[in-house]
């Protein structure tokens, strides 16, 4: 089974604005970097998904500081960066074609936000035939909402995803 690591929306907006700080952001970043390093060491493609707003007044408008992928991600020049304009990283992007061209059939997901872009992308991947996917606990995060705390959002989504849309791995982070 050929794998790829998909890192969704780990952008500066979640690290530099206190009102947008991801829940347990340092732990999540450390774990994502562990996945990235393992992927690089095993020649597993790493694909960064970058939310890109079309609105010049939006904080994720192309070229703004908040739009940049987070400076502390362990990126390499061989990594792919795919820009998206909706919650779904497959919608009107080259992601699906890239995966097909490279015969990738298993995806490991990480990133933000749990209930928005990550959830939508995980479900879309499953519907497109990527049905052996994985997610390691503590490699994704979100913000508190007006209804739920971030940890509750994370727990809820993990319980829905596990053994349906992907396999949730609780324990060591090993690709």
TrEMBL record:
The organism's place on the tree of life at top rank: Bacteria
Database matches in Pfam families: Isochorismatase
Xref: InterPro entries: Isochorismatase-like_dom (IPR000868), Isochorismatase-like_hydrls (IPR050272), Isochorismatase-like_sf (IPR036380)
Annotated GO MF terms: hydrolase activity
Isochorismatase-like domain boundaries: 4-131
Alphabetical UniProt keywords: Hydrolase
Record CDD domains: nicotinamidase_related (cd01014)
Family (UniProt): Belongs to the isochorismatase family.
Protein name as annotated: Amidase
Organism expressing this protein natively: Sporolactobacillus putidus
């Amino acid at each position: 089974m050929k794998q790829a690591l998909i890192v969704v929306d780990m952008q500066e907006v979640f690290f530099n604005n206190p009102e947008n700080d991801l829940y347990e952001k340092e732990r999540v970043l450390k774990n994502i970097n562990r996945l990235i390093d393992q992927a690089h060491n095993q020649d597993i493609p790493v694909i960064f998904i970058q939310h890109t707003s079309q609105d010049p007044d939006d904080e994720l408008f192309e070229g703004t500081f908040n739009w940049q992928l987070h400076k502390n991600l362990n990126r390499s020049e061989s990594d792919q960066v795919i820009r998206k304009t909706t919650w779904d990283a497959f919608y009107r992007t080259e992601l699906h074609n890239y995966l097909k061209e490279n015969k990738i059939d298993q995806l490991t997901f990480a990133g933000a936000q749990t209930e928005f872009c990550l959830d939508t992308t995980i479900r879309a991947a499953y519907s497109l035939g990527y049905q052996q996917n994985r997610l390691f606990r503590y490699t994704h995060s979100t913000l508190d909402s007006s209804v739920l705390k971030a940890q509750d959002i994370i727990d809820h989504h993990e319980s829905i995803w596990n053994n349906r849309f992907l396999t949730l791995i609780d324990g060591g982070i090993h690709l």
